[in-house]
Specification:
With 196 residues, the protein is mainly beta. Helix content is 4%, strand content 41%. It has one helix and ten strands, in the order ββββββββαββ. Strands 4-10-9-6-7 form a five-stranded mixed β-sheet, with no helix packed on it. β1 and β2 form a beta hairpin. The longest helix has 7 residues. The N terminus is likely disordered.
Length: 196
């Protein structure tokens, strides 16, 4: 999980539970092996195993696995955007190496009006973090609908990718944000009867 050095795909799978299997059968010694592909979350995963024998003997074990990277991109984003918004998209970049890194941080996004400069170069000391912000604009509804990609998809959204690359280290995160119409959500229901 989380990937390694240069050129990897952006991290984009962030479930709360990495794996669930209620029926793992052990061998005669009571052992079992399960391969678990970890999602892209950089976190400490806790494995919990509960066992029950045919004679109703029970047991429980836990174990932790830390998933991290030497360079970490942590997006600072709103939960959603509204058409016509002018806002800031940001990221915090953490250098967990033991050397100062010169890091190039970049932003890409669909269906947004982006600034001219999409990359920034930072010097981040060992064990330190730095933040980068970009001012963006969400087009008005008619302009957004006319240029929206994919063309027929509703509801509207943007795919934001933030990446950072240093010497021998990199990370990238891709997230989708909904773009809401201006105004309040409204649900209208009608009921009636049809006569023959």
């Amino acid at each position: 999980g989380g990937g390694g050095g240069g050129g990897e795909e952006p991290r984009q799978s962030f479930p709360d539970i990495a794996y669930w299997n209620p029926t793992i059968v052990t061998d005669a010694n009571g052992s079992a092996k399960v391969d678990v592909p970890l999602p892209d979350n950089l976190t400490t995963w806790t494995a919990i195993a509960n066992g029950v024998t045919a004679q109703t003997q029970v047991g429980k074990a836990t174990g932790d696995t830390l998933v991290t990277k030497d360079l970490i991109v942590r997006p600072v984003l709103p939960r959603f955007l509204n058409v016509g918004d002018k806002t800031t998209l940001g990221t915090i970049v953490r250098n967990s190496t033991d050397v100062t890194q010169t890091v190039t941080v970049a932003l890409t996004a669909t269906n947004l009006t982006l600034p001219q400069v999409l990359t920034r170069t930072l010097t981040i000391s060992a064990g330190q973090s730095a933040s980068v912000n970009w001012n963006i604009t969400v087009p008005q509804a008619n302009a957004l609908a006319a240029s929206y990609s994919p063309s027929a998809a509703i509801p509207l959204s943007t795919t934001v990718t933030m990446s950072a690359r240093g010497t021998g280290v990199s990370d990238a995160v891709q997230l989708s944000l909904p773009i809401e119409p201006f105004g309040e959500k409204r649900v209208v229901a009608s009921a009636g009867q049809a006569d023959d």
